[in-house]
Design goal:
With 143 residues, the chain is an alpha+beta fold. The chain is built from four helices and four strands; from the N terminus they run ββαααββα. It has one domain.
């Protein structure tokens, strides 16, 4: 079988520095909220504060962590907020997304951990978060 790369056919990568919408070019900062650099900037803006609330509620609903007492020989891993403006395929504003991520770069492989886990969830049912929240309120089982 001959692939394109074996035949010497290559497609050049193109990088876009601005968004094109209806043959007009707009720069992203003029259309969308700016991504905050610090937690104080995010908390001062209602749209980012709401995005943080949604992420935190999802983490609690999914049972992402369990609080346990720390022992003196364990290294505590901190966390930080990461902010991103999401856009639709046509370049229009979709939403502001906030993620709470662990500062895993403070750990040493083989000492602090032996394996990694990176969960990915692809929901076929868009009402799953609503079910989770509704289930949490009624005291039912976990999803």
């Amino acid at each position: 079988m001959t692939t394109r790369s074996k035949a010497g056919i290559f497609k050049l990568k193109t990088y876009h520095t601005s968004l094109s919408l209806n043959q007009h070019t707009f720069s992203a900062p003029a259309l969308f909220p700016s991504e905050p650099k610090t937690i104080r900037e995010a908390l001062a803006t209602p749209i980012w504060k709401d995005a943080m609330r949604v992420e935190y509620e999802a983490l609690l609903c999914n049972g992402t962590w369990t609080l346990v007492p720390a022992s003196p020989d364990q290294k505590i891993v901190g966390c930080k907020w990461v902010f991103k403006v999401k856009v639709h395929a046509d370049g229009s504003f979709e939403r502001c997304k906030a993620r709470l991520v662990a500062k895993g770069f403070h750990q040493t492989a083989g000492i602090d951990y032996t394996e990694t886990f990176s969960p990915r969830m692809y929901s076929m049912c868009p009402s799953l978060p609503n079910r989770c929240i509704r289930n949490d309120r009624t005291g039912g089982g976990n999803y």
